[in-house]
UniProtKB/TrEMBL annotation:
The chain crosses the membrane at residues 9-26, 57-78, 85-105, 131-148, 160-177. The keyword Transmembrane helix applies. Residues 6-142 form the Methylamine utilisation protein MauE domain. It is a multi-pass membrane protein. This is BT_3928 family protein. Keywords: Membrane, Transmembrane, Transmembrane helix. It comes from the Bacteria. It comes from Rufibacter roseus. It is found in: Membrane. Its main location: membrane.
């Protein structure tokens, strides 16, 4: 009886967790691809340069691996080809366990992206989660006699369900890539006040780790005794710190971060010119021309890019992009919007609209967002 109960718990948890994890990643396949690129960078530096060859295919791998998680989870829950599915889950989880351990032990990738931006896990939390999952899969492998096929679900019906899971998973990922994530869990989502999130919600408290005579000491205030040697400063309430700490906008004239929060700003985000979509810019130019003519309410267009000034000057003349441009960090721009180019509408620093280049707004849509 105990083995049966344990089997049922493991069956539901493993199947449900894989479906949940896969769907969260498919919600934002570009974000998952960015995380894969981080791993490829680490492995190419630590093991072999061959991993660099995978970078151009990160998006395809993102959708494939995320869909595989969902499909295996569905197959397990409907008990379709249980033995094959369990072994695939085992080796997949074993691989993930190695990744998370390596990242945690050597502090390589600080966020595994297991649950996208929905749930942030530290490297050691990710490793612990994978170890528990691996144990549960081993339980299922040793008690798989309790996972006999359902009487009302034939092998053929189970195969149809799994095939539908394949089609639906891939469709979800492709659609999210061609538009924007269905659910935005990032700090630049619609409704967020960027300047407010750049400030701490409460005074920060720190502990100071000091060393003296080979021993470590912890102080709540920095010691005035100069015989102590400073080692580390640790935040005691990091949850009260700024949610956005890296949003900076500049050009050759200086810092223009605060100017981005004045009035109505239409941000044209170009991650980099080498991977953007040039054929979209005539539509963007039409939008900017329409906003300039309307003047009610007044909307100031601004381009943000991480490309060099030389690259962007050549590019903007090629596409006739008539708007002032500024520079920002590439990671920040990818966090702001997954589309390259993408459009954000700010009203006094509050994000009131976000659009993928496949869903560019009309002048009327922009104006309605500002009412």
């Amino acid at each position: 009886m105990f083995k049966l109960v344990l089997n049922r718990i493991a069956w539901l948890v493993v199947g449900g967790l894989f479906i949940f994890s896969g769907l969260i990643k498919l919600n934002d396949p570009v974000g998952t691809a960015i995380k894969l690129e981080e791993y490829f960078e680490v492995f190419s530096a630590d093991f072999s340069l061959v991993f660099q060859a995978f970078k151009p295919y990160a998006l395809y791998l993102s959708i494939f691996l995320s869909s595989l998680e969902v499909v295996l989870g569905v197959a397990l829950l409907v008990r379709w080809r249980v033995r094959l599915v369990l072994w695939l889950l085992f080796f997949l989880t074993l691989f993930f366990t190695f990744l998370t351990f390596y990242s945690a032990y050597y502090n390589k990738v600080t966020d595994c992206g297991c649950f996208g931006d929905f749930i942030k896990l530290t490297p050691w939390q990710s490793f612990s989660k994978d170890v528990v999952l691996l144990v549960l899969i081993l339980v299922l492998l040793f008690t798989q006699r309790f996972l006999a096929p359902f009487r009302k679900i034939s092998s053929k019906t189970g195969g149809v369900v799994v095939a539908l899971a394949v089609l639906l998973s891939v469709a979800i990922g492709v659609y999210a890539y061609q538009h924007l994530p269905y659910f935005d869990f990032r700090v630049y989502k619609v409704g967020n006040n960027i300047p407010k999130l750049m400030k701490a919600s409460a005074p920060m408290r720190y502990q100071y780790i000091m060393e003296k005579d080979g021993k470590e000491y912890t102080f709540d205030q920095f010691p005035t005794d100069k015989s102590y040697k400073f080692k580390e400063m640790v935040a005691q309430n990091p949850e009260d710190g700024p949610k956005i700490s890296d949003f900076n906008v500049w050009n050759d004239m200086g810092d223009f971060t605060q100017e981005m929060f004045l009035g109505n700003r239409l941000l044209i985000v170009v991650h980099n010119v080498s991977k953007t979509e040039p054929e979209i810019y005539p539509e963007i130019n039409n939008l900017l021309a329409g906003l300039e003519k309307s003047q009610s309410p007044k909307v100031v267009p601004v381009v943000l890019t991480s490309s060099s000034s030389q690259e962007f000057d050549v590019f903007r003349h090629e596409v006739n992009l008539a708007a002032p441009y500024f520079f920002a960090d590439a990671t920040v721009l990818k966090t702001m919007i997954r589309s390259n180019p993408g459009v954000l509408l700010l009203q006094n620093g509050v994000v009131v609209g976000k659009w993928h280049y496949n869903d560019l707004p009309t002048v009327e849509e922009v104006q309605n967002k500002l009412k």
